[in-house]
Request: fold
Amino acid sequence: MLPMFASSVLRAPLAALCLLLLVAGCDLNIVNPNEPSEEQVLTTTEGIEALAVGMQEYYATQTLAPVLLTTGTTSREVAVNNTFANLVNLEAGGADLPTNNANILQLWSRNYRVVQMAEDITAATPDLPFDAGTESGLLSLADLFKAMALGNIAQGFEQGPLTTDRENNTTFEPREALFDEAITRLEDALARLNATPPSDAFLATIVAPGIDLRNTLQAYRARYLLFAGRFGDAIAAAEAVDPDATSTFPFDDQSPNPVWDNVFLTPNYAPREDFGSAATDQGDARRDFFLTGDTGGSAVNDLPVRTLAGFFGSASASIPLYMPGEMDLIRAEALVQTGNLADATAALNAVRTQAPDDDPLGVGADLDPYDGPLTADALLEAIHQERRAELFLQGVALEDMRRLGPADPDPTDSFARSRNFYPYPDQERQNNPNTPTDPAI
Reply:
């Protein structure tokens, strides 16, 4: 178990075993009188509380790494730093990326494991004797994590199921439908919390320390509204996020930061110099926040890399669920798309000129205001560059490159994305007859 996620809920043997089973991804139907059955887990308040804690832990320790590092390899934020075939093939990308790639399978299967946990909580909670505030908190937490998982799938794959089932024969929907479902889940959660605020018991013993549920719901709503092209709604959602709030996943030495684990403990990846962008301003203070050490070469392609720092520099470093500066960048992009270039420039400059001490997470570019052309294309290019630095290893760079970068991927260019979308894992295709044809690249 991850100690920083532990609560009084997890001290019960039933809950602890339930969490262990969830993290291991095992079938809960185990014939053992000393272990809980699936029915016991899903029909008791203790079981559902443990499942909610376990869902957060599973996402933080198992799902987050492929979300950040697999897509970060394709978007060139990180370089592969060993000779494992699955990683070498992932970095090479292109049309020949094998469908049996283990990293792509992790990105797919772990996010859908989170979807399943969230759906189990949603189905079981209303039938159990929770007080109104705890029920509201549990259902809203499940909505958040289902929305995040579906959003991750939509950023990596052209299509995906909106839900899971025991037969594993769900139908696929276009990625736009996944974003729409994620937005609906987030909006339902916000409406529920407005009607019934979460209880003190939920906040004290179920939601992970460091997670600000309401602001995270609104921040992800703003993100996915932007990705869905609903620009006016994205502006309003971004403005609803408290600029001084933070929301982070906690880690410690026993259950370490998963990016740190993959960069330092098992050196699979290394951060690219200048965030993998040829346009990074050398005076950008975010370089020193995220990157330290002398420039070296990665193990495979000898790409220039640095030593990772910031939210990933130690086993106990917390990882943000979102960056406060992302809200200004969402506003800036959406304002450009709606024709308000003056206000878009002001929102862009709010990020460019911010000093590290003025950011609640200590991230700041400390640059001069934007002085380029006041055209939509130029501003979008500048916004893309700010997102590259401000949102380094936040899992959105691949989506950003498709939306704001060159139209086509180029596996031969170390500054261009190596694919648009991933092929569907072999395991999914073997078990689900509805799996679509793989994208060409």
Strands lie at 78-80, 159-160, 173-174, 248-249, 269-271, 291-297, 304-308, 319-320. Residues 7-31 have pLDDT under 50 and may be disordered.
